[in-house]
Amino acid sequence: MDTAARQHHLLGPVVVGTDGSDQATRAVLWAAAEATARDQPLAVVHGAGARHARYWTPDSPLTAVDEGRAVLDLAAATVGDRYPGLKVDTVLSRADPGESLLEATGPESTLVVGSRGHGGFGSLLLGSVGLHVSARSRGPVIVVREVTEPAAGAVVVAVRDDGDRGALRFAALTAQARGASLRVVSAWMFLEGAGSMVAVVDDVGEIARLEIEATERTVDPVREEFPGLAITEDVVRSRSVAGSLVEVSPTADLLVMGARRPARSVGAPLGRVTHAVLHHARCPVAVVPRG
């Protein structure tokens, strides 16, 4: 097996949540395409949630099991029609939507969710289940928002420092599996937090040069590991890092970010930049745990 083939299999299986809504169906088909590109199986998960516990009895005429199974069967059939060679497993869980997805996802898996939903995934609005799993998953989480049509043929990854090397490598593996190019975007904010008392800038050009060099040092190992992958770097001065990433998102099939999870925050939320991009990006967004 050559190097590219070995790298191809470093991306693990794909897990996707569904409630039967249009948004969830779009996420399921996106996840199926991703699993196909990786040559990995797809698991489709439906979580009934604790509020349906009273229905979980063998003699009920219509149970959460029936409803959930119907949703999963339809999802599996939809995937089978579009991707007949893909191995698809279905998982019906008693847990709440977010927990059911986390339980079904291992550290090597990639979890895919839609940006909103209904029914068994009634809280699958970005800000609830999507943010819940993005903040807690041990592996990458992809929130499928708008999908570029036709495909842009590019994966974009946000890089700020060496802590983003995991996200960078995930983006490179994904781009290679898709036959896409990789665009590295590093947005820096000069005098961030310095306040209005700063009156003199010694050398903005020198700071820009240092930012470029730092980005190159982070990207160089990935260039060496993926010699056949087309990689471009954009180091830009920005008024808003999140704004810059949202601005480039329409040109991407996937935007990849490292998850910044503040250690002292209640409920393990994401950092503000990641949070903003998940709400406003115009393409699917992958959140990769840092470290």
TrEMBL record:
Alphabetized InterPro entries for the sequence:
Rossmann-like_a/b/a_fold, Universal_stress_UspA, UspA
Q: Which Pfam families match?
A: Usp
The segment(s) forming the UspA domain are 13-145, 155-289
Q: Which SUPFAM superfamilies does the record associate with it?
A: Adenine nucleotide alpha hydrolases-like
Specify the superkingdom: Bacteria
PANTHER family named among the record's database cross-references = STRESS RESPONSE PROTEIN NHAX, UNIVERSAL STRESS PROTEIN UP12
Annotated family: Belongs to the universal stress protein A family.
State the name under which the record lists this protein: Universal stress protein
